[in-house]
Give the backbone structure.
Amino acid sequence: MLSDKIKSLLQEVATLEAHDAQELENLRIKYLSKKGIVNELMGEFRSVAPEQKREIGMLLNELKTALQERINTLRATLATAEDDLSDLDLTRTPYPIRLGTRHPLTIVKNEIIDIFSRLGFAMADGPEVEDDWHVFGSMNFADDHPARDMQDTFFVEQHPDIVLRTHTSSVQSRVMEKTQPPIRVICPGRVYRNEAISARAHCFFHQVEGLYVDKDVSFTDLKQVLLTFAREMFGADTKIRLRPSYFPFTEPSAEMDISCNICGGKGCGFCKHTGWVEILGCGMVDPNVLEANGIDSSIYKGYAFGMGVERITNLKYQVKDLRMFSENDVRFLDEFMAAN
Ligand code: PHE
């Protein structure tokens, strides 16, 4: 019977295979060409009894569609197989995928930010090309103050008022001029100084400065925050020591040393056998600075601190030469893979 014949052909469809273009073409000719099986069945269909026409007609259509789909699938499979294999050597060792690493300065900067953000400090940002006012004027540097020289400033040619910022204190100024206390920010960023490049100095480096302005802020608060920072950064046994110092923008001012974390305070080459290494400058914000930035110094007080990220990184990872940080030598950078 015609319907049985069609049904068995339908089952055959899924088993059809072609290993190359010729075999595929042969299949097409066998089933779908003018003289192919489907057309032959169409011929037989004409003499089918009218009451069966509907059922058998549907079966025939089904067969035709199934055959077309099967042939299309086989054609697609053959095409991809040919593409892929033409120039692919499946036995070759794959190229290793090179993963990037975070820069050591970024790792340490993030760690510093993380510690201070847990203490409630928010992040603040500002421009690297700055005006004299935000870098010096607002920070209580007198016009002829030798500290301007002390910081070896790069000036923008023909614009003596425009400089590359020598410290991120300029960001403190920008925050104070637009926010009233309480202010609690840290300002991470790159700074520039005109120094001869050597293992111990570079013409740019990175700082994180902190500023806290509120009522009743005391030196004790500053010391406690810095002690917490030192212990979080260098370990719970770390000791700190504050030495009197001078900055135009703080009064009183201090420099902070930590017990050398390389020799544990016993004395080594790194700490020049003193057991201590300097890591930051700090002090109570000079009232002149508060006033210059629009904050009433009879109501508010503040403390500020600033540290070099390179210095902290040297202490953590004992990088001997500052130039390593900006040479992009992957052998150096790869060493920080695990710290990422
Ligand atoms: N701005 C100082 C510097 O660049 C660091 C500092 C910041 C010192 C805040 C004290 C208070 O050297």
Notes: The chain has a mean pLDDT of 90. The chain has twelve helices and ten strands. The pocket of phenylalanine is lined by residues 167, 169, 209, 247, 250, 281-283, 304-306 (CB under 6 Å). The CA atoms of residues 138 and 292 lie 6 Å apart.
